[in-house]
Structure formats: structure tokens, C-alpha cells
Amino acid sequence: MTLGELDWIKQLLVCPRCRSALAEKPGALNCSAPACLYHAAMTFPMAGPWPVLVDFERSVVDREEVVAAADRSRADGPKPAGLVHRLPAPLRRLWKPPNRVAARNVDLLLRSLLGPAPRLLVVGGATVGNGVSAAYHDPRIQVIGFDIVGSPVTQFIADAHQIPLPTGSVDAVLAQAVLEHVLDPTLVVAEIHRVLKDGGFIYAETPFLQQVHAGAHDFTRYTASGHRYLFRRFEELAAGPVAGPGTQLLWSVDHMVRGLTRSALAGRAVRGLMFWLRTLDRLVPPSYAADDASAFYFLGRKSDREMSAQEIIDYYRGAQVPA
């Protein structure tokens, strides 16, 4: 695939370093600005069908590894379904229940997007997240997806710290289970704010009490208040736990067994047997869940006003309010 074949998105893509227009050359792209490092001295390679729009001088993303990973993916073909995906549907739902919180909020997000072809940018969109598939099935929505790896549901590879899109170019952003995997979440959220149109929407889900996942690429956790302050330049439309203390306890039991047995399989087996712990989430009052949730969500609208430090102190909704 060449940039010319990406007709519906090619007019949007810009240099991640200076945000100038891109020019196509055989097997690569370069920046059209003569003063930019990526005009002549360096280029943006193609990794299989995906343009790699990363400022490698300012990123932990490795140029050679990204291209090599795409080559391996094409050579190996589609990966076989994992054990969980081979289970009957009722058992799959017990192991990984549908994310109804995400489904509800994405439905609200889609209904809030006006016009004939609103653009939804999916940050870290190498896979379709749990509960967000409606965004991909709505024929009215123009989905733009990117990640640091290519996939069938992404159009380009990029680092979220420098999103290669113009200012004010998308109507909404989806960032599900992404911000824990970036080195500077504040910078990434600032980039999200920049690429959104005035009044544009953000939906994000981020862990609070979860074990390390994705190995060396897992950096950050947020309380409810910390998550709200991360999005301090957005008006809150809805926010709260994605999953509560019961789910958090289930994850902890899984990983405790892994540690005791040195076996991820043993942890998963115990997790499957104790799936019922999730149901305890329904019994915990919201104020207690806010102090002990597995993850939080935020649905907001881009604002010109920034939340103050005093306001974030007053924002706390947990059970530890002084009498």
C-alpha cells in the first residue's frame, strides 16, 4: 500500500516533528519543510502497508524493530486464536465479560457526534477494545486508528507523544487501556487536546489497581482524582470505575497464584474458577469503589478552561471524606 492509496486519510497526515505536509517517495515518506530533519537527512519508512510516522530522535520506538515486526507479521500470517478465544461463547464471557461501561459510554459518544462523517481517532488501536466495537460498525463514523505496531484496524504507525495529525482535525478520540503504556501521559493528553476540534470528545479508560501488564511497556496508574486531573483541560461528562474491588481482587488472586507457582497458566486457571468475585463489584457503594477500583473511565469534552489545583482537591468522591 502506498500513501496514494490511503485517499481518505492522506490529506490529514503530517510530519510528527514539525507538523508540515508529507511528500511521498519510493518506499518512504519525507517532510515537505526544508528545515526539518525528516526532509532529506531522514525519512519515514513504510512497515508493510503502514506509514511509520515517528520522530525517532524523540521516541523509544525503534525504527528497525517496527519495520522488522511488520515483515514478521506478513510472513507469519494471522495469529492462531488464543486458548480463551477458542472457548465456547458462554465460557469466554465468564473469563472476559463484556465491558458494558465502555459500550454505554461509546454509545453516548457516537450519539454526541454530529454531521455526516465525524472522525474518531483511536489511540493505541491495534486491536478493537472490549465494548467499543460499535464505533467500528457505525457507517457514519470515520475511524482513524494508529499504534506503535500495525494491524488490520490501523492506518499508520505513530508514537502518541507526537500524533501526526493537524491541530483540530478530529471530532473525538478513544484511548482505552493506553495511557498506562506511554512514558508521559500528560504530553499524550495534551496531544489529544490539540488534535481535537473545539468541543470535541475524549473517552479514556486507564488502570488504577492492576498488576503490571505488557512488561517493560507499562509505566503508570491513576486514582480517580489523578485521572480527572490528567484531563483537567476537558469538561467532564461522565467518569467513574470501569471495574470495582471485586474485579481487582480477582486479578490479585490470579497474580498471587502465578507468583506462588511460577506459572501463568495456574494463575489463569484459578482466575477462571473464581470468576464470581467480579459480581462483588455490584455490592460495593460508589464511594468505596472509587478508592479501590481496578480501572477508571473518563468521558469529556474539549474545553478552553483548565481545572485548578483547588478544584481537584474538592473533586474527591471516595469514602475517606473527613467527618
Describe this protein's structure:
- This protein has 323 residues and is of the alpha/beta class.
- The protein has 10 helices and 11 strands.
- The protein has helices spanning 63-76, 89-95, 100-112, 133-137, 185-195, 224-230, 245-261, 264-273, 286-289, 309-315, and strands at residues 22-25, 28-31, 44-47, 50-53, 119-123, 142-147, 156-158, 170-176, 196-207, 234-243, 295-302.
- Strands 1-2-3-4-7-6-5-8-9-11-10 form an 11-stranded mixed beta sheet, with helices on both faces.
- The protein is globular.
- Mean pLDDT is 90; it is low at 1-5.
Q: What is the secondary structure topology, with strand pairs?
A:
Elements: E1 22-25, E2 28-31, E3 44-47, E4 50-53, H1 63-76, H2 89-95, H3 100-112, E5 119-123, H4 133-137, E6 142-147, E7 156-158, E8 170-176, H5 185-195, E9 196-207, H6 224-230, E10 234-243, H7 245-261, H8 264-273, H9 286-289, E11 295-302, H10 309-315
Parallel strand pairs: 4-7, 5-6, 5-8, 6-7, 8-9
Antiparallel strand pairs: 1-2, 2-3, 3-4, 9-11, 10-11
